[in-house]
Design a protein that fits this description.
This protein is mainly α. 71% of the residues lie in helices and 0% in strands. It has ten helices and no strands.
Length: 185
Amino acid sequence: MSDQVAKLCQSAKAGDAAAASELVNLFYQRIYAYFRRLCGSDQDAEDLTQKTFQKVWPALGSFEGRSSFSTWIHGVAYHVYVDWRRRKNVSDIQTDEWWDTCVAQGPSPFEHATELDMARRLYAMVQQLEEGAKQVVHLHYYQGLYLKETAETLNIATSTVKYRLREALNLLRTSTVEPKIQRLI
């Protein structure tokens, strides 16, 4: 955990509203981008991001620093997402119009992709993966979490993360995709 984030966490735990606000500024966009890619709507992503931060503040006192703050807050976000899916029973398939609006705001495997259509098709293929594989792809590649952080977030073994990533990449590689997309995978 970076020194800045550690200091902010300690100050926020002690009731410093400015430190809490700075933590929101540091992590809001990453959490929002995570939800936006998963749930298919800006409004749902905003709602889920707010719910995440509503859960983070009362639980901040229980954050002991055994993992990075980023891993911890992504874990909270993941559980908020799982609860939302259970209640809403959402469909995994997004419309082409929605994918056209998916501009990556943070780390993304498509930073160097110049063709929006190619990226849209690959995002759509990831959305078709089994839920466990989709989660590790989203957290590891889209959110930029390390394998260990992804494992901690999902409360699974690092070896399971590696296995799911390998399986997801194999499925994506063997799908009927253009050679240009296969080079990205």
